[in-house]
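Dear support,

I submitted the protein below through the web form. The confirmation email said the job was done, but the results page showed an empty box. After a refresh the structure appeared. I'm attaching both so you can tell me whether what I see now is the final result or a partial one.
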Amino acid sequence: MSKPRRVLIALCLLLAGLGVARPAAAIDVRGRSSTQYLWYNDIVDGSKQSQLAEYLSFSMNGIDNANKLSVQGYGRATYQLQKADADTNSAFDDRLYYLYADYKGLTDQVDVRFGRQFVNLSAGSALIDGVQADIKKLSLVGVTLMGGRDIQFGERGALTSHAYSAGMAIYLMGVKNTDLDVSYYRAYDYSDVARDMLGFNFKQFLLDSMKLYTNARYDLTAQVLSEVLVGIKYFPQLDLMLTAEHFESYPTFDTTSIFSVFAVDRYKENVLKADLTALSWLDVNAGIIQETYGEGGDAKVYELGLRVRPSHSFTVGASYDKRTGYGGDLNGVKTYAEYSDLKKLKVAAGIDYDIYQRDEMTGEETAKKYWASARYHFTKQMSSSLRVEDNVNANYSKDLKGRATFDVDF
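What the results page shows now:
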């Protein structure tokens, strides 16, 4: 029996035991079932493929009398209609993305989460089968502790059973307009240390018109600052936001990965952006990005976008990107239109058109994408959607794909 199923059975037994002392009518279960049909072309041989998929997410509250315990879950099951997988000889696949029990207010200052869950620290993140505890009310700080077995998905199920991670964070509490945390994250591959990271996150709001923020990660094994972001958002008035950011990234890999022996360059990026609500029916945004890829590798990106709302139910948008420099040149336009009768039907369609040149030795190429989508609400809890897309580029003269869904909220 797989570990996800063992976790599911354990949680079900826990809930069943609690249900003996709690009337069933008092338990509140909410969620969504999404049944989907997808069709596309195989990227290897170009053959037509189709797939049935079922996505299920739910939350369960009111399990105990104090309403401290809740359960969250999300997963999917798929069935390939054309052919079975060459390795497993099975067309069926399932993934459990998360399934955890969350107990808040243990000894009035500890929140505990047990099961499959996504944990996110400023030093690193992982999907784990494990435990996360949040200890609050320690003077001006709180502490988060986490640890468990890493879950890494491949084409068919989880890839490893020998990867583990653990970490902790100390964060500031009770200081108005200020967020601050320092964290540590370590990952293991068998008994070897694969990742050893320090993280830092800071946000400060000033004068109701300015936000300062910075994030940083330091790789202790490579002894290098692997990622840093420093930015400021300024709101001189309600309808205008100005953004300035500096970002650097030095890619590091797990110490157990073959890629850890390869040399890499540090990437740098400077961003200036402005977002303006010029009129009640018109939004404008513009930006410029300076990119640096190691020695002698520079590029610039210019962005301009418009969004027009002729009425409450109709929106038209267009954006233009121009990129020049290292890695090739690009001129791209995206346009779309959306219509909603605000009751049952919403439709949208768009066209993306890019002209690009990879380097001086190649000529210009084009890439086009045409798409259309619609969603219809039969009731407040029941809806259906359809999206169809066609790509025409250097690799495909026609690449038709789509998705049809039937969604039920409960």
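Response: this is the final, complete result; the empty box was a page-load delay. The CA atoms of residues 226 and 250 lie 5 Å apart.
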